[in-house]
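Notes from hallway chat w/ T.B., transcribed later so I don't forget. T.B. wanted the structure written out for a chain they're using in a teaching module, and asked if we could keep both sequence and structure tokens in one place. Agreed to drop them here.
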Amino acid sequence: MQLDLSSLTSVRDFVRHFILKKRKLNVLINNAAIKLSSRDLAAKPTNDKLEVTMATNHIGPFLLTHLLLDYLITAAHMTGDARIVNVTCSHHDNEQYSGVSELDTNNFQLTKEGTFSSQQAYKNSKLCNVLFTYQLADSLQGTGVIVNSVNPGMVPSTQLDSKASKLTRCFRLFCLHYLLRCAKFTQTKRQAGKQVALLATSDEYKGLSGNYYENGVPERSSIESYDKELRQKVWNISRKLAGLSKDDGFDEISLSSIV
């Protein structure tokens, strides 16, 4: 099924087609992400007038998750287990990387002059993945749906840096992927995928919700990600940008919201 997470229309069309298939949904993995080139010095808007990194990495998955919640909750009631896995990375932590700062909710899409950088846009979107995980996990308590985020490690062989220069891509692929893999500093796609798949399917994680995982074990995420006021602000901003009308609860999330 085709899905462009940078487009809110595409997300809604995807869900309409999913409904027609009349399938049960036990697992949702929000994995797709993009990162612009360091040469991009200004925010790139989508057709929905959203900054493309935030739209693809957070707002699109945020909307998709909300529109599919009814199906996940129903599956959890039927089988006792349904799961949402949000794939993030260590770059969500501004204290670990130079050149990025904390998320400014008054400049959520980095549209203020001189504030955009591909690194900051990516960092903000990956932080939102973690904030969304924690807030959603709290909201879904008692439904049988568990929500976790995972940092599968550095995986240079993916297409995440497809917008980067040829020199940067070669460096990541040959130096980081092959040389540093021996030191277990980087992960192969199979190794990273296994972490995500186990979190989505293994009985080891059944009933465990609201956690941030690295290498299969819960770890501390960034200091910023534990700011409950920031979580709520990002939740409200995301709902508005995604076109969801209410700030609290899921009463409005039903089939009528997408048809």
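Follow-up for T.B.: The chain has six helices and five strands. Might be a good example for the class.
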